Amino acid sequence: MPKKQFKSESKRLLDLMINSIYTHKEIFLRELISNASDALDKLCYIALTDSDAGMSRSDFAVDIILDKENRVLTLSDNGVGMTRDELENNLGVIAKSGSLQFKEALAESKPAKDGENPADNTPDIIGQFGVGFYSAFMVAQQIQVISRAYGQDDAYLWTSSGSEGYTITKAERSAWGTDVIIKLKDDDENEKYSRFVTEHNIEGLVKKYSDYIRYPIRMEKEIYVPKEDNDNAETPDVNETEKKTELTTLNSMVPIWQRNRNELKEEDYQNFYRDKFYDFEKPLLYTHTDAEGIVSYKALLYIPAKASYDYFTRDYQKGLQLYSSGVMIMERCEDLIPEHFRFVKGVVDSPDLSLNISREMLQHSRELKVIANNIEKKIKNELAKMLSGDRGKYEEFHKTFGIQLKYGVASEFGMKKDLLQDLIMFFSSFSSDNDGRPVTLDEYVTRMKSEQKYIYFATGENISLISKLPQTEALREKGYEILYFTEQVDEFTAQIMRNYKDKEFKSVNDDDLGLENEDEKKDTQEKQEQNKDLLGFIKETLGERINEVKLSPKLKSHPVCLTAAGGTSFEMEKYMKTVQPDSAIRAERLLELNPDHKLFERLKDLYEHDTDRAKKYAEVLYTQAALMSGLAAEDPVGYSETLFELLT
Ligand code: ADP
Questions:
Q1: What's the gap in Å between 91 CA and the centre of ligand 1?
Q2: Angle at the Cα of 577 from the Cα atoms of 574 and 581, rounded to 5 degrees
Q3: Does residue 36 line the site of ligand 1, with CB under 6 A?
Q4: Calpha distance 565→575 (Å, rounded)
Q5: Residue 79 Cβ contacting ligand 1 at under 6 Å
Q6: Which of 42, 60, 99, 133 to mutate to test the pocket of ligand 1 (most atoms within 8 A of CB)?
Q7: How far is the CA of 132 from the centre of ligand 1 (A)?
Q8: In sequence order, what are the beta bridge partners of 171?
Q9: Comparing C-alpha atoms, which of 21, 1, 19 is closest to residue 163?
Q10: pLDDT digits 0-9 by tens, 372-395
Q11: Burial level of 46, CB count in 10 A (0-12/13-18/19+)?
């Protein structure tokens, strides 16, 4: 029988796996049990949706058989099994996704020190990357898989001793299902592989990693029973017992979400999270709901502490695992989680969902919509509770996932504004050191000065640049707080929201910041009129580059600033240039001059006596203003020459 080769990428990874010093080797058992449980789920689903299948849930189990003498560990399930092609396709390809990250993570993983539990110090990289079956090669010198697919007469044997390839031959199996037969490696100084054929060790591993698997995981176990001829069986004496073997179920089988909240400890929820979602970090928040009403359901929801490695990629799929009375009907039900809470992980179990339901029908199911709405509200309330009860934790959450909430406010024309507006945070001038703490809109509005009309915001690359913007001077002088928009989405969010608690958002770049009273306005207008010719001259000198020149009451110590009039901000212009370098989108430029600054006096003087030099001044003022607003000089060489001429 010629050997078939693994695909080359698979071969390399397999080599890595076989020779790995990864201390988490025991995890392979959980992976194989989880595969068996999936196979049982699939068949259970068929059985429940097709009454002709003639099976009942209680028939399904995973059996573990230990052969100490030959160092062989067998896992046997009566699930859907695999056809010849499935054996070939499922077991011939390793690490369908994330293989590169997996390699890196494996290379980085360190052995645990003496007395350390590897599960406590090593991220669970096997689970994270879907290389489950192959993890068995960390402990196996040979693996045989005998499988017979549901509804098929033939069974097949897949055999491999590692990276040099595998064979598939015809085999016998009396019923459908799969046996995974592992011939363990020889013990060496680093690893006692024989522990995987030791009863109490296997029992411990099943309890540790697979307790909540909803099918019995059974094993023949040695037990002591009172001797049959013992008259007083109620109080057995050690001397009067005998050793027997008995098929014992090792796991408790009750899924955690079906259990009473009072019986569960924080640790139970955390362990479940780690094992189910392969996240080594403790979740930031969990909540366990048991809802009774028009639709009854149980839900266990988690907010991760960090975004997963693929969270910001297209590969990431949101969704909750969906069960109907303990039977999984969907691995990832997207409709249960709105986009703005896509980071939430968890499970939902409802007896009110029909098992027969197709995925398309499920999307339109009224029950599912009710559950989804409740879950959305629940998450919102939990977050609001965290914000008021544990500010530091909330800020940590917001740092990672706040952007998601902001996109949530901005999407669908602001439909979710009311739901989310009190959960979003921004940096502000009241917290302006570089790692300043963000503020909520409610906090901003509550401490607004009585005469303050607007919620002011300034946009820029980072806090320190924004805090120096000349156009914020007048606002600062009045003691008004300014929100600092450092993320692309911030400005977008404010635009969609328009207002918060009846207070409008206003950019510091806006022409009219609403700071002047009628008299002051008149005064500025008069000055503007008096200097009409000079302003016209500057406009003419700068040409198409700017849209308008005017005198500004915003400026105090600075002579000049450049603001963006109209709807496009400088940040948007810059963003468009990065995504589309030839983008014609350009913010309208408004050059604002401080009429009370010495430089303005100088300019006036030059305009009257030396127009050539006045032109150069106009150039310098414009480019300097652009630089302060975070824009690049449009003609750096030409500009430098102008500057040098002025300096000499
Ligand atoms: P994953 O479980 O993440 O998909 P694995 O490498 O563990 O990756 O398994 C590959 C595939 O092999 C599974 O998706 C499944 O289709 C199939 N498989 C593995 N074990 C079994 C089993 N006991 N019964 C049926 N199919 C199985």
A1: 7
A2: 160
A3: yes
A4: 17
A5: yes
A6: 133
A7: 8
A8: 155
A9: 19
A10: 999 999 999 999 999 999 999 999
A11: middle
